[in-house]
Design brief:
Two copies of one chain form a homodimer. Chain A is an alpha+beta fold. Chain A contains 16 helices and ten strands. The termini of chain A are far apart.
Chain lengths: 399, 399
């Protein structure tokens, strides 16, 4: 017998008990988020966010020919690599642009091959969950967890680039389970953040994310169930990832995983296949972030709050009615726009940004999960981890 | 000073000295190969190869609905996973089907985004080679080597599915360098070969191959040079991989790498960027294959010769005028067609099919490179490595 069997199961992921287990503090004034208020959407329709600098920011992703800056880390080779890393993601994002779709970012991926029309009988949700996870991993997923559909995290509306307004959310009803994956980002590139070069870690991971999500959805489709692959579109993915047991929520507003710390990109597949759910994990992140200010201090845009979790909304890009650490997306994005690439300083300086295949990093993680967490943070600081590497040194490194 | 500097450089990859270094025995009667004679092309136009079974073989890749067989490893979940693993590769292969193109298999990938129109000045071919390799690796390449363009390995013609005849080879002239990559295949899946399940290792690796090749070509394009990404189309890739230093040629006709043994898929990017070339590597494969018959004995189709390297041509799918170990592609493919999936038994049983992150595998590789290679092979046999795992056990394995 599974010793878990007599414990309350978190099958209703929307229940207060499930929220408590995940550390969610959702208030009575909670309101679902519309993707239109996402900072990237606002950088198109909202004059408070859109500027010549933000237009230029996007232009650097499309146009290889210009010399954008002559600072180390922002030269032609840096942008050449960054934009190449985005290439496959871009292809899929643009494949149905004629239909006002930007798949993976504003719209879920279109199912390209239909299933067999009848469902494979499922032995049990536990067996199917195990098989889906095993399959996801050989298809290239680094981390996989499963949770239930939760309307609260679904965008009320999607966003149309063409009309610059809201359009209907299109994830069909009845897809009651969500397979959440996290893909690790290259640690070496991120050492050079902020730089166009470090942006290659973002793009390369999205590209892997894309192909793995498409493959997992196709696998489920081939078994006769419905499955929709989704990356940044359709829903807030961090609450789903936390409930699916992939990690804890960090002060910088990012998911912190046991295996890669905050160095991940997340995607999901909605499906009606019966699948057992995972439970949230705790390994000390909440308590560490309570006393750590590495990201707050490291952020040049001062976008990351240093105080307690709160329900404060900096602006319309924050979600209403959840007590949590909340970043200021306007300040964050303005910094991106000003430097012509994305920024991952908060990832670089986070004490959980380690290579956990090393025993000392695992020992550090263990220590950080004990009452000696302040010692762990002190060791992290004196150890010098998290310092920026000059981008030209990344290029010079042998092999 | 580099101690290699006073040795003869293999800059002319077509020279007899370069061939000798790579272990190539190319005769005066050598003739270039036309892709039309490739066994997969023949399975469409050549009644000697095409059959109801081969048509059915291809059908299993496209149609998820039918129960193809009820044998373990060939059930719906196995085909569901195999076909999902091919999904992204298929999307790219079919993207320009209207133009009679099957990119990655019969035609090189179309360049989708143009470069800046002027070339980044190159410090030296050595520097550029280092930067391209470093970039390729963060874009997802497992192994990268560089060699020169060699007309001998280019297909005389490409093959048109639409007309079932030859069509012109389209790699433009002047792309004098070739970046060759190898992607590792999942070892666990291959333990179940032959099975539809183990075919997922093939598809998943092609999918990774595809996105990495596209990204590398785009990186070079973004620097202002010409670059064409190519997978199984346009040229024989094994001779290119050997000259690029990725591994040695094995008795089964596959590349054997130091890092993953024969467990790789290979792709290439043709470019005019000035790049220093790598040199072939030797680590004892030739001598091991001389005395080993694991693949010959393991092949149920008896497609792998047990004798000395020869110039024997089993049929028109062999290349003329090279003394080498030569497999019988007709027998090999007939076995694939009969079992409704690809076969990787020769990969599974190859003594180099090991996980070289384990110290004992590295020790074994070292031993196999010495005069004690027969002892190494004996240890391999008594150790039981290479036995088939029942596919249902793969599914049952935890996590």
């Amino acid at each position: 017998m599974d010793p878990m069997d007599d414990q309350p199961r978190a099958n209703d992921v929307t229940s207060p008990a499930s929220d408590r287990e995940a550390g969610f503090a959702v208030g009575a004034d909670f309101r679902r988020f519309s993707q239109k208020d996402d900072i990237f959407c606002r950088s198109f329709w909202d004059p408070e966010v859109r500027s010549d600098r933000s237009d230029m920011f996007y232009e650097t992703y499309r146009t290889p020919k210009m010399k954008w800056r002559s600072v180390d880390g922002f030269t032609q080779r840096d942008y050449a690599l960054r934009n190449a890393s985005w290439h496959v993601t871009d292809i899929f994002a643009e494949l149905r642009e004629d239909a006002d779709r930007r798949e993976g970012f504003l719209d879920p991926y279109t199912v390209m091959r239909e299933g067999p029309g009848s469902e494979l009988p499922v032995a049990s949700p536990e067996t199917m969950a195990r098989e889906v996870k095993r399959s996801a991993r050989v298809l290239g997923a680094d981390l996989v967890g499963i949770t239930g559909y939760d309307e609260r995290w679904m965008y009320t509306h999607a966003y149309s680039r063409e009309t610059e307004t809201e359009k209907p959310q299109e994830i069909p009803r009845g897809l009651d389970n969500v397979v959440v994956i996290a893909q690790s980002m290259d640690k070496g590139l991120l050492r050079t953040a902020p730089s166009a070069l470090s942006g290659a870690a973002t793009g390369a991971t999205y590209s892997r994310d894309t192909i793995v999500l498409l493959a997992i959805a196709q696998y489920i489709t081939n078994l006769g169930y419905r499955a929709v692959a989704s990356m940044n579109d359709s829903a807030l993915v961090i609450p789903l990832a936390i409930k699916a047991g992939l990690g804890e929520y960090g002060r910088h507003g990012l998911l912190i995983t046991r295996e890669f710390g905050p160095r991940v990109r997340i995607g999901k597949v909605f499906t009606d296949m019966p699948l057992a759910h995972d439970r949230p994990v705790r390994f000390g992140v909440r308590e560490v972030c309570d006393v750590c200010r590495a990201c707050t201090d490291g952020c040049p845009a001062k976008a990351i709050a240093g105080g307690e979790p709160s329900t404060l909304m900096h602006n319309r890009s924050n979600i209403q009615g959840i007590r949590k650490w909340t970043t200021d997306a306007e300040k964050c994005f303005r910094f991106w726009a000003n430097q012509n690439t994305d920024c991952s300083i908060c990832v670089r300086v986070c004490p959980y940004n380690r290579d956990f295949s090393e025993w000392w990093s695992r020992a550090w993680r263990w220590l950080a999960g004990t009452r000696l967490r302040r010692l762990a943070l002190w060791l992290d600081r004196v150890g010098g981890r998290g310092k920026r590497l000059r981008p030209s040194l990344w290029w010079d490194a042998a092999g």
